[in-house]
Amino acid sequence: MDEIALIKLNLQFFADEKTEKATPKKRDETRKKGQVPKSTDVNTSIMMLVVFLFLWMYGGSIIVSMFADMQREIFTNYLVEEVTPESVARLFLTVSTQALTAVLPLMLLAAIAGSFGSFIQVGAMFSTEPLKAKLNKLDPIKGFKRIFSARALVELSKSVLKISLVGTTVVIIIWTHLEEVMLLSQKSITDAMGVIGWLTIMMGLAVAILLMILSIPDYIYQRYDHEKQIRMSKKDIKDEHKNIEGDPRIKSKRKQKQMELAMQRMMQEIPNADVVITNPTHFAIVLKYDESKAEAPFVVAKGMDFSAQRIKKRAQEHGIPMVENRMLARALYHQTDIGQQVPADLFKAVAEVLAYVYRLKEKQSVGQNHRT
Fold it and tell me: What topology does the record note for this protein and the membrane (predicted)?
């Protein structure tokens, strides 16, 4: 491979290397696909915190009420019934309904807490893109690469760390209350269930707070990893710019076509103009004064260099007077657009030019009358 080919290959490599931050358009596209930085630990910790706080405040009354209703129903109705498949089915349905009634508020509270955890991370968003089946996920080679990728190793390290810390927290809580745990066999069922429930709530709250603390660095990492995943190469940015703005060559042709059409319209108006003010070579401004259209003279056409030469040639073909005034030509070219009236500070200079043109036309008409 020669040196030039090697240089081209290196340039192509650096052009395709994803080193640039994602553009707002790329961010919107990835968001619509459901690809957003999000830590599941935030959702889990908020859900656990809300659920165990609810159990801490109302769990005892819910359990007592559920068991009281269940015992009342069993001892009042089902204890005296004959054991048959139908009676067992009714008993199972009753117990399930009462348990579901007791657990349903807790499930709704957990769902609301999980939704709130997602909202504070990514805002309001709804996307069905992650639910679509993608055949490339079944590719064993890509799956193998994902398993042994750097991201997978980071996730494994995070999981091991969380399990270790959570396990340590649970062991510490049990160890500090070991005497109460050892005396459970000597307590009544109600007191034993109360101690077990209290320890469970303590462990749940401690784990929730621990996960909430761990979710902060995890969320920072997820944002970093997301930014890394959506990076773009210089070529990607150029291609996106082309798609938004259009191909520069096409834009150039379109602009050239618009200029040609504008020039054609100007050329069509020149035969009806009153005067052409020139630089004499660089600028040409065509003026017309029509009281029915405007109170002051207005610009019919203007051009510079090549366009100015075309305007002057067109004016000569139709006998439009040309007046050389360098300062006025420059001022009109820079201060007015086609269709605009002459600025007030140039009224006097333009009026003198038009007066000269009108006198010239009057002399020409008188001369023609004499010859006839």
Answer: Multi-pass membrane protein
Q: What is the pTM of this model?
A: 0.53
- Give the three-class secondary structure for 5: helix
Q: What is the pLDDT along the chain (372 residues), one digit of tens a residue?
A: 455 544 444 445 444 577 778 777 888 878 777 778 888 888 888 998 998 888 888 776 766 666 666 666 666 666 666 767 877 787 778 777 777 777 788 888 888 988 888 888 877 766 666 566 665 666 666 655 666 677 778 788 888 888 999 899 989 988 988 888 888 878 887 788 778 888 888 999 999 999 899 888 888 888 888 888 888 877 777 777 777 665 566 667 777 777 777 777 777 877 888 888 888 778 888 888 877 777 778 888 888 888 888 888 888 888 888 888 888 888 888 888 888 888 888 888 888 888 888 887 777 766 665 555
| Fold of the domain spanning 250-371 | name from scop (3.40.1690)
Strand partners, 323: 277
Q: Where in the chain is the domain with CATH 3.40.1690.10?
A: 250-371
Which residues of the chain form beta strands (DSSP E)?
A: 275-278, 283-288, 298-304, 322-324
Q: Tell me the CA distances in angstroms from 229 to 20, 120, 222, 232, 288, one per residue in order.
A: 11, 22, 10, 9, 63
| Backbone dihedral angles phi then psi of residue 302, each to the nearest 5 degrees | -155, 155
The number of CA neighbours under 13 Å toward the Cβ of 159 is 6
